[in-house]
Amino acid sequence: MAADRPSTGPLAERARAKVNLYLHVTGRRADGYHELDSLVVFADVADRLTFALADDISVHASGPFAAMLPPAGDNLVRRAADGLRAITGETRGAAIGIDKQLPVASGIGGGSADAAAALRGLMRLWQVAPAPEALAELALALGADVPVCLGGRPVFLTGVGETLVPAPPLPRCGLVLANPGVAVSTPEVFRRRDGGYSRPMPFDAAPPDPATLAAWLRDRRNDLAPPAQHLEPVIAETIDALAALPGVLLARMSGSGATCFALFADEPTAADAARSLRHLHTGWWVETGVIESAS
Ligand code: C5P
User: Fold this and answer.
1) Are residues 168 and 203 in contact, defined by beta-carbon separation less than 8 angstroms?
2) What residues are paired with 113 via a beta bridge?
3) CA 81 to CA 58: how far, in whole Å?
4) Whose CA is nearest to atom 11 of ligand 1?
Protein backbone atom coordinates (compact mmCIF):
# COMPACT_ATOMS: atom_id res chain seq x y z
CA MET A 1 0.00 0.00 0.00
CA ALA A 2 1.28 3.46 -0.89
CA ALA A 3 -0.89 5.13 1.71
CA ASP A 4 -1.20 4.61 5.40
CA ARG A 5 -2.90 6.37 8.24
CA PRO A 6 -1.96 4.69 11.49
CA SER A 7 -4.21 5.72 14.37
CA THR A 8 -1.24 7.33 16.12
CA GLY A 9 0.48 9.03 13.19
CA PRO A 10 -0.25 11.69 10.59
CA LEU A 11 -1.75 11.05 7.19
CA ALA A 12 1.15 9.85 5.03
CA GLU A 13 1.94 8.82 1.47
CA ARG A 14 4.98 7.11 0.01
CA ALA A 15 6.61 8.68 -3.07
CA ARG A 16 8.33 5.67 -4.59
CA ALA A 17 11.29 5.77 -6.94
CA LYS A 18 10.26 5.20 -10.56
CA VAL A 19 12.59 3.15 -12.70
CA ASN A 20 12.60 3.24 -16.51
CA LEU A 21 13.49 -0.37 -17.36
CA TYR A 22 13.95 0.85 -20.91
CA LEU A 23 13.39 4.26 -22.48
CA HIS A 24 13.16 4.87 -26.21
CA VAL A 25 12.93 8.38 -27.63
CA THR A 26 10.55 7.88 -30.55
CA GLY A 27 10.05 11.42 -31.84
CA ARG A 28 9.87 15.09 -31.07
CA ARG A 29 6.79 17.30 -30.96
CA ALA A 30 6.55 20.80 -32.40
CA ASP A 31 6.71 22.23 -28.85
CA GLY A 32 10.11 20.61 -28.29
CA TYR A 33 8.91 17.84 -25.94
CA HIS A 34 9.97 14.33 -26.88
CA GLU A 35 7.76 11.35 -27.56
CA LEU A 36 8.81 8.38 -25.49
CA ASP A 37 8.22 4.66 -25.19
CA SER A 38 9.20 3.38 -21.77
CA LEU A 39 8.49 0.53 -19.37
CA VAL A 40 8.14 2.25 -16.00
CA VAL A 41 8.09 0.38 -12.70
CA PHE A 42 8.25 1.43 -9.05
CA ALA A 43 10.68 0.37 -6.37
CA ASP A 44 10.02 -0.01 -2.66
CA VAL A 45 12.47 2.85 -2.04
CA ALA A 46 10.65 6.08 -1.34
CA ASP A 47 10.33 9.56 0.07
CA ARG A 48 7.64 9.87 2.73
CA LEU A 49 5.20 12.76 2.75
CA THR A 50 2.97 13.71 5.69
CA PHE A 51 -0.06 15.98 5.64
CA ALA A 52 -1.88 17.96 8.34
CA LEU A 53 -4.66 20.52 7.98
CA ALA A 54 -3.47 24.13 8.32
CA ASP A 55 -4.58 27.63 7.33
CA ASP A 56 -1.96 28.00 4.61
CA ILE A 57 0.11 25.67 2.48
CA SER A 58 3.59 25.04 3.81
CA VAL A 59 6.24 22.54 2.77
CA HIS A 60 8.97 21.41 5.11
CA ALA A 61 11.69 19.02 3.96
CA SER A 62 13.91 16.84 6.11
CA GLY A 63 16.05 13.80 5.43
CA PRO A 64 19.38 13.16 3.70
CA PHE A 65 18.56 14.98 0.44
CA ALA A 66 16.46 17.86 1.84
CA ALA A 67 19.19 20.43 1.27
CA MET A 68 19.22 19.69 -2.48
CA LEU A 69 15.56 20.69 -2.96
CA PRO A 70 14.72 24.04 -4.55
CA PRO A 71 13.36 26.72 -2.19
CA ALA A 72 9.89 25.93 -0.81
CA GLY A 73 8.29 28.62 -3.03
CA ASP A 74 8.99 26.86 -6.33
CA ASN A 75 8.90 23.34 -5.01
CA LEU A 76 6.86 20.95 -7.19
CA VAL A 77 4.92 19.81 -4.12
CA ARG A 78 3.87 23.37 -3.41
CA ARG A 79 2.76 23.76 -7.03
CA ALA A 80 0.81 20.49 -6.79
CA ALA A 81 -1.00 21.79 -3.69
CA ASP A 82 -1.77 25.15 -5.34
CA GLY A 83 -2.97 23.37 -8.49
CA LEU A 84 -5.23 21.00 -6.57
CA ARG A 85 -6.79 23.93 -4.71
CA ALA A 86 -7.38 25.68 -8.05
CA ILE A 87 -9.21 22.74 -9.66
CA THR A 88 -11.26 21.84 -6.57
CA GLY A 89 -12.00 25.27 -5.08
CA GLU A 90 -10.51 24.09 -1.78
CA THR A 91 -9.58 27.00 0.47
CA ARG A 92 -7.99 25.20 3.41
CA GLY A 93 -4.25 24.76 3.60
CA ALA A 94 -1.94 21.95 4.61
CA ALA A 95 1.35 21.52 6.41
CA ILE A 96 3.25 19.09 4.19
CA GLY A 97 6.36 17.29 5.38
CA ILE A 98 8.78 15.58 2.98
CA ASP A 99 11.25 13.06 4.31
CA LYS A 100 13.62 13.25 1.35
CA GLN A 101 15.29 9.86 1.00
CA LEU A 102 15.69 9.87 -2.81
CA PRO A 103 18.42 11.86 -4.55
CA VAL A 104 17.21 14.96 -6.40
CA ALA A 105 17.41 15.44 -10.22
CA SER A 106 18.40 11.82 -10.59
CA GLY A 107 16.22 10.01 -13.13
CA ILE A 108 14.05 8.17 -10.62
CA GLY A 109 11.35 10.80 -10.56
CA GLY A 110 11.93 12.04 -7.03
CA GLY A 111 10.30 15.43 -7.61
CA SER A 112 7.52 13.94 -9.76
CA ALA A 113 6.88 11.16 -7.22
CA ASP A 114 6.67 13.78 -4.46
CA ALA A 115 4.22 15.88 -6.48
CA ALA A 116 2.08 12.81 -7.21
CA ALA A 117 2.16 11.77 -3.54
CA ALA A 118 1.16 15.33 -2.61
CA LEU A 119 -1.88 15.12 -4.92
CA ARG A 120 -2.89 11.74 -3.45
CA GLY A 121 -2.34 12.88 0.14
CA LEU A 122 -4.11 16.21 -0.22
CA MET A 123 -7.12 14.59 -1.92
CA ARG A 124 -7.42 12.42 1.19
CA LEU A 125 -6.71 15.24 3.64
CA TRP A 126 -9.22 17.63 2.08
CA GLN A 127 -11.62 14.85 1.04
CA VAL A 128 -11.78 16.21 -2.51
CA ALA A 129 -12.20 14.23 -5.74
CA PRO A 130 -11.51 16.34 -8.82
CA ALA A 131 -12.76 15.19 -12.21
CA PRO A 132 -10.28 12.60 -13.57
CA GLU A 133 -9.57 14.72 -16.67
CA ALA A 134 -8.80 17.82 -14.57
CA LEU A 135 -6.51 15.77 -12.30
CA ALA A 136 -4.73 14.22 -15.29
CA GLU A 137 -4.26 17.66 -16.85
CA LEU A 138 -2.88 19.08 -13.59
CA ALA A 139 -0.51 16.12 -13.18
CA LEU A 140 0.90 16.50 -16.71
CA ALA A 141 1.24 20.28 -16.28
CA LEU A 142 3.36 19.65 -13.16
CA GLY A 143 5.76 17.40 -15.08
CA ALA A 144 5.86 14.71 -17.72
CA ASP A 145 6.55 12.02 -15.09
CA VAL A 146 3.81 13.07 -12.64
CA PRO A 147 0.94 11.12 -14.33
CA VAL A 148 2.88 7.84 -14.19
CA CYS A 149 3.84 8.47 -10.56
CA LEU A 150 0.22 9.28 -9.69
CA GLY A 151 -0.87 5.83 -10.88
CA GLY A 152 2.13 4.10 -9.30
CA ARG A 153 1.74 0.87 -11.29
CA PRO A 154 4.02 -0.74 -13.89
CA VAL A 155 3.07 0.70 -17.26
CA PHE A 156 4.24 1.28 -20.78
CA LEU A 157 4.41 5.05 -21.07
CA THR A 158 4.03 6.76 -24.44
CA GLY A 159 3.36 10.26 -25.70
CA VAL A 160 5.35 12.73 -23.63
CA GLY A 161 4.24 10.88 -20.50
CA GLU A 162 0.46 11.12 -20.63
CA THR A 163 -0.45 7.79 -22.21
CA LEU A 164 -0.16 4.91 -19.78
CA VAL A 165 -0.92 1.29 -20.67
CA PRO A 166 -0.73 -1.31 -17.87
CA ALA A 167 2.25 -3.64 -18.24
CA PRO A 168 1.72 -7.41 -18.14
CA PRO A 169 2.55 -9.04 -14.79
CA LEU A 170 6.28 -8.77 -14.16
CA PRO A 171 8.35 -11.25 -12.16
CA ARG A 172 9.55 -10.19 -8.74
CA CYS A 173 13.20 -9.15 -9.22
CA GLY A 174 15.91 -8.03 -6.86
CA LEU A 175 16.92 -4.44 -7.57
CA VAL A 176 19.92 -2.25 -6.77
CA LEU A 177 19.78 1.50 -7.36
CA ALA A 178 23.04 3.46 -7.48
CA ASN A 179 23.63 7.19 -7.83
CA PRO A 180 27.21 8.49 -8.05
CA GLY A 181 26.31 11.84 -6.51
CA VAL A 182 25.89 14.02 -9.59
CA ALA A 183 22.67 15.84 -10.44
CA VAL A 184 21.79 15.81 -14.14
CA SER A 185 19.56 18.38 -15.88
CA THR A 186 16.81 16.59 -17.84
CA PRO A 187 16.40 19.37 -20.46
CA GLU A 188 20.17 19.38 -20.98
CA VAL A 189 20.22 15.61 -21.56
CA PHE A 190 17.39 15.83 -24.10
CA ARG A 191 19.16 18.76 -25.80
CA ARG A 192 22.41 16.81 -26.13
CA ARG A 193 20.73 13.79 -27.71
CA ASP A 194 21.57 13.30 -31.36
CA GLY A 195 20.94 10.65 -33.97
CA GLY A 196 17.60 9.30 -35.07
CA TYR A 197 14.63 8.00 -33.18
CA SER A 198 13.93 4.52 -31.89
CA ARG A 199 10.81 2.53 -32.55
CA PRO A 200 8.39 1.73 -29.72
CA MET A 201 8.93 -1.82 -28.40
CA PRO A 202 6.29 -2.59 -25.77
CA PHE A 203 5.60 -6.30 -25.20
CA ASP A 204 2.31 -8.09 -24.45
CA ALA A 205 3.50 -11.32 -22.90
CA ALA A 206 4.38 -11.67 -19.23
CA PRO A 207 8.07 -12.55 -18.79
CA PRO A 208 8.04 -15.76 -16.73
CA ASP A 209 11.13 -15.00 -14.66
CA PRO A 210 13.73 -12.26 -14.03
CA ALA A 211 16.22 -13.73 -16.53
CA THR A 212 13.63 -13.57 -19.32
CA LEU A 213 12.67 -10.01 -18.39
CA ALA A 214 16.36 -9.04 -18.47
CA ALA A 215 16.81 -10.73 -21.87
CA TRP A 216 13.86 -8.80 -23.31
CA LEU A 217 15.18 -5.57 -21.83
CA ARG A 218 18.59 -6.20 -23.40
CA ASP A 219 16.89 -5.90 -26.82
CA ARG A 220 15.86 -2.40 -25.76
CA ARG A 221 17.89 0.45 -24.28
CA ASN A 222 17.85 3.84 -22.61
CA ASP A 223 18.30 6.36 -25.44
CA LEU A 224 19.15 9.07 -22.91
CA ALA A 225 22.17 7.20 -21.56
CA PRO A 226 24.69 8.32 -24.26
CA PRO A 227 24.02 12.08 -23.84
CA ALA A 228 23.85 11.75 -20.04
CA GLN A 229 27.18 9.88 -19.99
CA HIS A 230 28.66 12.54 -22.21
CA LEU A 231 27.66 15.18 -19.65
CA GLU A 232 28.69 13.07 -16.65
CA PRO A 233 31.16 10.28 -17.48
CA VAL A 234 30.77 8.89 -13.95
CA ILE A 235 27.41 7.49 -15.14
CA ALA A 236 29.26 5.05 -17.44
CA GLU A 237 31.43 4.10 -14.45
CA THR A 238 28.28 3.48 -12.40
CA ILE A 239 26.76 1.21 -15.05
CA ASP A 240 30.06 -0.68 -15.36
CA ALA A 241 30.29 -1.12 -11.58
CA LEU A 242 26.71 -2.47 -11.46
CA ALA A 243 27.33 -4.73 -14.46
CA ALA A 244 30.32 -6.28 -12.68
CA LEU A 245 28.37 -7.31 -9.56
CA PRO A 246 27.89 -11.03 -8.93
CA GLY A 247 24.56 -12.36 -10.19
CA VAL A 248 23.63 -9.23 -12.15
CA LEU A 249 21.12 -9.77 -14.97
CA LEU A 250 21.02 -6.24 -16.40
CA ALA A 251 22.58 -2.86 -15.55
CA ARG A 252 21.24 0.38 -17.05
CA MET A 253 20.56 4.07 -16.39
CA SER A 254 17.04 5.19 -15.38
CA GLY A 255 15.32 8.22 -16.94
CA SER A 256 17.75 11.02 -17.75
CA GLY A 257 20.17 9.84 -15.04
CA ALA A 258 22.30 9.84 -13.10
CA THR A 259 20.70 7.02 -11.09
CA CYS A 260 21.39 3.57 -12.55
CA PHE A 261 19.83 0.25 -11.65
CA ALA A 262 20.66 -3.42 -11.78
CA LEU A 263 18.27 -6.37 -11.81
CA PHE A 264 18.91 -9.65 -9.99
CA ALA A 265 17.10 -12.99 -9.78
CA ASP A 266 16.12 -12.39 -6.15
CA GLU A 267 16.41 -9.99 -3.23
CA PRO A 268 19.21 -11.74 -1.28
CA THR A 269 21.45 -11.66 -4.38
CA ALA A 270 20.65 -7.96 -4.83
CA ALA A 271 21.36 -7.26 -1.15
CA ASP A 272 24.77 -9.00 -1.35
CA ALA A 273 25.60 -7.07 -4.52
CA ALA A 274 24.58 -3.76 -2.90
CA ARG A 275 26.89 -4.50 0.05
CA SER A 276 29.89 -5.00 -2.22
CA LEU A 277 29.04 -1.90 -4.26
CA ARG A 278 28.84 0.26 -1.10
CA HIS A 279 32.20 -1.13 -0.06
CA LEU A 280 33.76 -0.23 -3.43
CA HIS A 281 32.13 3.21 -3.75
CA THR A 282 31.64 4.62 -0.29
CA GLY A 283 30.42 8.01 -1.58
CA TRP A 284 27.66 6.65 -3.79
CA TRP A 285 23.99 6.40 -2.85
CA VAL A 286 23.21 2.69 -3.06
CA GLU A 287 19.78 1.26 -2.21
CA THR A 288 18.38 -2.20 -2.57
CA GLY A 289 14.80 -3.33 -2.93
CA VAL A 290 12.27 -4.95 -5.20
CA ILE A 291 10.09 -3.78 -8.02
CA GLU A 292 6.56 -3.44 -6.67
CA SER A 293 3.75 -4.56 -8.91
CA ALA A 294 1.02 -2.28 -7.48
CA SER A 295 0.78 0.93 -5.49
O1 C5P B 1 8.09 17.70 -17.69
P2 C5P B 1 9.40 17.82 -16.96
O3 C5P B 1 9.52 19.13 -16.24
O4 C5P B 1 9.72 16.66 -16.14
O5 C5P B 1 10.50 17.83 -18.12
C6 C5P B 1 11.74 18.46 -17.98
C7 C5P B 1 12.29 18.77 -19.35
O8 C5P B 1 12.68 17.56 -19.98
C9 C5P B 1 11.35 19.44 -20.32
O10 C5P B 1 11.37 20.83 -20.17
C11 C5P B 1 11.89 19.00 -21.67
O12 C5P B 1 13.01 19.79 -22.02
C13 C5P B 1 12.39 17.61 -21.38
N14 C5P B 1 11.42 16.57 -21.72
C15 C5P B 1 11.20 16.26 -23.05
N16 C5P B 1 10.29 15.29 -23.37
C17 C5P B 1 9.63 14.60 -22.40
C18 C5P B 1 9.86 14.89 -21.04
C19 C5P B 1 10.77 15.89 -20.73
O20 C5P B 1 11.79 16.84 -23.95
N21 C5P B 1 8.77 13.66 -22.74
Assistant:
1) yes
2) none
3) 9
4) 187
| pLDDT tens string 163-172 | 999 999 999 9
Measure 187 CA to ligand 1 centroid, in angstroms. Answer: 6
CB atoms within 10 A of CB 185: 14
Distance set, CA 145 to CA 56, 64, 106 (Å): 27, 23, 13
- Measure 253 CA to ligand 1 centroid, in angstroms: 17
Ligand 1 pocket: which of 26, 186, 198 to mutate (most atoms within 8 A of CB): 186
Contact 13, 120 (CB under 8 A): yes
Over the stretch 103-151, which tens digit does the pLDDT of each residue have?
988 999 889 999 999 999 999 999 999 999 999 999 999 999 999 999 9
How many angstroms separate the alpha carbon of residue 150 from the centre of ligand 1?
A: 17
100 is catalytic: no
Residue 114 beta carbon below 6 angstroms from any ligand 1 atom: no
Do the bridges between strand 248-253 and strand 285-292 make them parallel or antiparallel, or are there none, so unpaired?
unpaired
Binding site membership of 26 for ligand 1 (Cβ less than 6 Å)? no
pLDDT at residue 208 in the model: 95
- Residue 18 appears among annotated catalytic residues: yes
CA 65 to chain CA centroid, nearest Å: 15
Q: Which residue has the higher pLDDT, 188 or 294?
A: 188
pTM of the model: 0.94
203 lines ligand 1 (CB under 6 A): no
In this prediction, residue 39 has a pLDDT band, given cuts at 50, 70 and 90, of very high
